[in-house]
Model the fold of this input.
Amino acid sequence: MFGALRGYAEEPSADWKPSVLSKGELALVSRVADIMIPRTDTPGALDVGVPAFIDTMLEDVYSKEAQEFYRSGLRDFDAAARKAHGNSFLKLDARQQKALVQKFQDAAIADERAASAEQQKKLVQEVRGAAMLAQRTKPTVWAHPRPFILTTKELTLLGFFTSRLGATQVLQYVAIPGAYHGCLPVNQAGNGKRWATN
Done:
């Protein structure tokens, strides 16, 4: 939690340097985050400093093994761009970049769903087995963290929606809610935006 608070996404200072990622890796992460939350009529991921937030979270929250797994996935992602298009991800045109991000995201989600279904199947077998109690009292330990693309998406969303601009210009934020107005349609209760606080 400390890392999340310290890494609260805002535009970093001019002398800020990444701690975990190299400059090239940070540039790739920045482009992926920009594809995930681009600037429209509201700020985008780059406007609130999401790349710096991701690097800070990697440093403060993730283990060395998880950091290396993330960086390895980043290199694999760039290698896939080279294999598919003959150039690094950052040198591809915007359409090719978006297509590659979508392809990797779709594949990673499908893999996670398959792994979750397999885990569920094993759990059902354990529940039906005689050694159920001994097995179920141990916490589930995943072999490795989430893939690069899903970790980037997760951290991009976290960084963006916990930033001042994300919480106030995209979500609604009222530190101390005022009057209670129950049973209103969403479009009347706050201009159709979701609330940043409950």
User: Anything to note?
Assistant: The chain is about 55% helix and 0% strand. Confidence is low (pLDDT under 50) at residues 1-7. The CA atoms of residues 32 and 111 lie 20 Å apart.
